[in-house]
Amino acid sequence: MKVLSEGCGELIGWHDPDEHRAWVRANKSRDLKDKRMTIADAVEEYVPDGALVALGGFGHVRVSMAGVYEIIRQRKKHLTLAGKTAVHDSDILIGAGCVDRIEVAYAFGHEMRGLSPASRRAVETGQCKVVAELSNAVYQWRFLAAMMGLPFIPTRNMLGTDTLKYSSAKVIKDPFSGKPICLVPACYPDVVFMHVPRCDMYGNAQIDGTIIEDFELARAARRLILTTEEIVPESEIRRQPWQTAIPFFFVDAVVEVPYGSHPCQMPYLYFFDEEHIGEWLRMSKSLEGVKEYFDKYVYGVKDFTDYLELVGGLRKLDYLKKVEQLRAPMTAPWLKKRG
Amino acid sequence: MKVLSEGCGELIGWHDPDEHRAWVRANKSRDLKDKRMTIADAVEEYVPDGALVALGGFGHVRVSMAGVYEIIRQRKKHLTLAGKTAVHDSDILIGAGCVDRIEVAYAFGHEMRGLSPASRRAVETGQCKVVAELSNAVYQWRFLAAMMGLPFIPTRNMLGTDTLKYSSAKVIKDPFSGKPICLVPACYPDVVFMHVPRCDMYGNAQIDGTIIEDFELARAARRLILTTEEIVPESEIRRQPWQTAIPFFFVDAVVEVPYGSHPCQMPYLYFFDEEHIGEWLRMSKSLEGVKEYFDKYVYGVKDFTDYLELVGGLRKLDYLKKVEQLRAPMTAPWLKKRG
Amino acid sequence: MKADYTATELLATVASKVLEDGKSVFVGTGLPMIASMLAQRTHAPNLLIIFEAGGIGPRVPVLPISVGDSRTFHEAAAASTMHDVMSLSQAGYVDYGFLGAAMIDWYGNINTTVIGEHDHPKVRLPGSGGANDVGSFCWRTILLMRQEKRRFLKKVDFITTPGYLTGPGAREKAGLPAGAGPYRVITQLGLYDFDEATKRLKLLAVHPGVTIEQIQDNSEFEILIPDHVGTTEPPTPEERRLLREIDPTGMAIGK
Amino acid sequence: MKADYTATELLATVASKVLEDGKSVFVGTGLPMIASMLAQRTHAPNLLIIFEAGGIGPRVPVLPISVGDSRTFHEAAAASTMHDVMSLSQAGYVDYGFLGAAMIDWYGNINTTVIGEHDHPKVRLPGSGGANDVGSFCWRTILLMRQEKRRFLKKVDFITTPGYLTGPGAREKAGLPAGAGPYRVITQLGLYDFDEATKRLKLLAVHPGVTIEQIQDNSEFEILIPDHVGTTEPPTPEERRLLREIDPTGMAIGK
Q1: Active-site residue flag, D220
Q2: pTM for this one?
Q3: Which domain holds residue A97?
């Protein structure tokens, strides 16, 4: 097996497929059991310091912010983050000092809102190390390989670039076409947080709108914590089983947290809270501001409901629902600045 | 790239990924256009003699029988069949003499009903040649590789068996784990027929129940002909876009054929017509019976509605709906025989 | 005394007892379905049933005709895809897998492809279907088959699905998932497992009234016979009643 | 005379004109979205828009903030997965792809990862995101960026996304899909393509009022200048009105 070239990026989250199979057999329950717990218990049980963490959704769309805040609240340390379409999620986890290693497909940016001061600063000062580079497609295919229990998946991208050089991929000659092809290794995150609109108490979950990478990621996860807008009766799930994106045996914990994606968007339910994200982007320009932000919104509140009250309560949530449903115009502090 | 071993099976449906990309660019329309046509026109346009044909569904579940009958009616010749979970579909296509080459994951059997006399006879007499062996998972992953535009997908099965020896797969040493791994080549059928419960006139299709292999197969197909129980307004599709299993640009023809899966099952709509399947299994024990069957049910009717009248019309279809919905008991001639 | 149960009923009940509650099983057409459904109605209510067409954790109302039939995703946890269920099997999520077999050898290698030469078959069989997948991916596979001298062979014409291939370590050497393989064989005569050291077929228990001689007479190869051989439990009236309930038309269990 | 349109409006309208009706485009955040939405509202109503998070053929009501935002699958043909859209891109279904760039070289290779050393960055940028995927898979990629001497570089610090790599044939030699690559570059100064023979950046047209000198002065490398250089069309009042309609808050187009 001649390898034509290979990246120097650190191989994170990879396991020999046989070792992973044995782990699954010993650790993932196939039993149908009630998995409801508090987010505090879920984080305590499934997020050891040093773990490789990945977040479902799209960085600031359908993100388990309830999970993210709890990781910060419990002051988890030395986490490695899967920087897959990472936006607000990674920015505040890095800003909070929980994450000091990241593999990057996309991070340190806030899409239309510009760059992310906190996480950029962390990387540029060496506080957070970028251990490998890759692309969005490649990250998602690393999860596909993991879901399939394979060591790797071939791809036809990254070839010829520095992204490949700093990745953990290898290039071989494809024995069918004779052309060079990239092999990207499986990635099994130690723990994944995913926010869904609904699931039952066993973890059978439905997702409205795009699934993004969550079909593969849920199945690649060693531990999967679902936060959900609502826990519905099992019968509602079983009535339309083709709507189930994640069946129960991939799930380790189910936590009901209405608005659990705030300030990120939850498709069909609520829009980005641009006021709050804007506040973070403003405050996170300085280390003092970062500290002030977490003191106020994480350490200073007793739970997620308390936090929701603090960011504007019912009136704010009602407004975000209207914006999401195109019944009210969007406003944002970062827009005013540009105006 | 040292290949440790490779199968002697014929490599069917494979194209160099670059050649396939160029073909897609030149031949698959990305334009949103009305694709409604008759099944006769669709078969005439997209099924040349000698083509590699694959059928959606599961051999006798959600099968485009309207497509199958039309292929027979137009007396297509020398087709190669993708024998993926092939049951009633392949049995009558081989029985009719349209198919003389088949790659086999599963074929020549009728699940609970026993073996298939017509197609078994064709293979045992050499009239139909088995060009390669593989497994159900491997066939579906060949379609996954094709959908992804890759030359191959790795798998951890077939290894060590004669199924591998008679397949078109290759074995290499995985550069990540150091263990042997099987590489199964992409398969792009020339034309695929798929039956769906509903789609719009552009081809945006929804499927209720299991998707089986059809997500990947629809995307692997060079030409994709949808037969559908119902053509619905575009707005109905766009209201819940996450229900779309097949977006329009993969589709080449849309044919409305209510009960188009008869005598096979259509989940939630109608059960297997065991009386009719039983009649085929009985008649197909002899070559004369086969001829009689096609004379009566294919060549002897002017269209699919005529055929439906012949097999029992409204009364039969109403009964099949009741059995499917567990409101009437199933009966079958092959059951009486065993009783 | 003539038994008040059929051989098929016995196979179904013995097979169902191999399954454990709270574990997963990959199920094929016919007897495997019945055995799994019976297990759910007796000792294993939370047995997770998985079908190759994508049905995951259904509440199967009545015996399906096909593993792709809508009964296989009736009130299911998920109605998904073959890619999904084959992937999770390959990733180690499936404890048990059922296989039917036309012929096996003493390492549990299975032929369901062809009798005679591949390119000039005496009898053509359906091929692998999902069998090679089940035999490769599931932790423990259970073979259900009729035992006859022409079916328990020294060498099968075609290895469709891997048993232990050529013996200990051969699966791993070939690249198959480690630590998996045939676990039980159940025939109309007895219940078998595989010897730890040699990976050869070994008698575990005979069915009521079956002799060791019958076991050996119905096999071309030598079956390992341990010092202690048990006897299987015959189906109880309650189990027989449940089997009728599961398969009211008798399509698999017989009339 | 001061133009009655902004540079951003000009970029959006010039970019939109590159797109063809009935073709597909892979769209990123910001200007690419605006350009594609404008094309749909003018000459290309059946332009198929694809977003990396899984939105396929949406009727985007208003400029999304994110390529994963629910606006990207509003009344879509399908709200699917990243695996689906990346796969269909790799399989050749996508005609056009948009890319933003911090820096490029004369072969259209793009850096959006880092300025300075990778492990000791002077400035850390977001990385590839979907850019390497778009640049690898889409038939024709369109680069939108600000043109300055420190952005049009002889050598970029990091090739995040492939242009023509080291020149003709280099993409294919590396194993990338054949026949694809950068198609146009659009900056605040002009519109560029790539020379057929050398795969180097070549001026196609200047924006109204821009001189060849300005074009060259704002690049570290030599830009090929053909005999005939066109001038781009300025945005019409109708186009400017549509742009306000698409982006009412001015988040990408400005106030």
Answers
A1: no
A2: 0.98
A3: 3-136+187-338
